[in-house]
Amino acid sequence: MHIIAIILAAGSGTRMQSEVNKHLLPLAGKPVIVHTLEAFERCTAIDAIVLVTSAENIGAYQALIAEHGIGKVSRIVLGGETRQASAHNGLRAAGDCDIVLLHDGARPLIGQQEIEAVIRDAAEYGGAVVAVPAKDTVVRAREGFIEAQLERSVLWQVQTPQGFKSAIIRDAYAAAARDGVQSTDDTGLVTRLGGRVKITPGSYANIKITTSEDLVIAEVLLRKGNYSGGMHFYA
User: Fold this and answer.
1) How far apart are CA 42 and CA 68, in angstroms?
2) Contact status, residue 50 vs residue 90, Cβ threshold 8 Å
3) Strand pairing report for 26-27 and 30-31
4) Among 27, 60, 117, 224, which lies 20 to 30 A Cα-Cα from 230?
5) Within a 10 A sphere around the Cβ of 118, how many other Cβ atoms?
6) Burial, 176: exposed, middle or buried (Cβ in 10 Å; 0-12, 13-18, 19+)?
7) Phi, psi for 200 (deg, rounded to 5)
8) Distance between the two ends of the chain, CA-based, in angstroms?
9) Structural domains in the chain?
10) Distance separating alpha carbons of residues 163 and 76, to the nearest angstrom
11) Alpha helix positions (H), 112-198
12) How many angstroms separate the most distant Cα atoms in the chain?
């Protein structure tokens, strides 16, 4: 199989409230994006990486890729105004392949075990997503007041990578563009067409760097575990 990973790193990261893009912030001695890219570089199943970024960060990413010897990045392409638009640009740049993985550039603690499991599940079921069971009680609210408590036992927190057979995810994005549908998640575009997406059990350590607190947590996890590409905290 020919497998391509699309790393989405075009977001501005406004919730970080930093003058530096969150993907370029230091984490345990390396920028966040380097940790993410290195995880997919190490995975022997990944044949190539497409990096999606903003115009102002292309030069910085090119320099980091050269500095850290990340050889699997085959294309760097510009993102769009939304995550969906950025992912679509990445898909166009990916070219012919059997399996596509889409991953948030701001999830630097993704483990090898999760990457490989998503690939296996995507190949078998057509689509797969790393997720963990919800730990907190989740409610539905209206106008600031609780309307209903949702059944936690059936709720999962969706992460990335999300993997798909190439034809399935390309058809889903083409249909979304045709129908004017917007989604913050690739699985939603696939399931709206009747596709099935397998839940691949993941790790609670696979956090997304969104706020300054997330950086602190990621730093602790990296240093505590002498982290090098995977801590599997959910079984």
Assistant:
1) 12
2) yes
3) antiparallel
4) 60
5) 28
6) buried
7) -100, 115
8) 27
9) 3-224 (3.90.550.10)
10) 20
11) 112-125, 166-179, 186-191
12) 52
Q: Tens place of pLDDT for every residue, the chain, 235 residues?
A: 999 999 999 976 556 656 778 999 999 999 999 999 999 999 999 999 999 999 999 999 999 999 999 999 999 999 999 999 999 999 999 999 999 999 999 999 999 999 999 999 999 999 999 999 999 999 999 999 999 999 999 999 999 999 999 999 999 999 999 999 999 899 999 999 999 999 999 999 999 999 989 999 999 998 876 444 444 444 3
Report whether the peptide linkage leading into residue 161 is cis, meaning its omega lies within 30 degrees of zero. yes
* Residue 97 token pair: 């392949």
Nearest partner of 205 among 181, 182, 229, judged by Cα: 229
**Angstrom distance (rounded) from CA 80 to CA 83:** 7
Residue with structure tokens 């012919």? 96
Q: How many CB atoms lie within 10 A of CB 56?
A: 9
How far apart (Å, rounded) are the C-alpha atoms in residues 98 and 165? 6
Q: Could you give the residue ranges of the DSSP H alpha helices within 106-227?
A: 112-125, 166-179, 186-191, 212-224
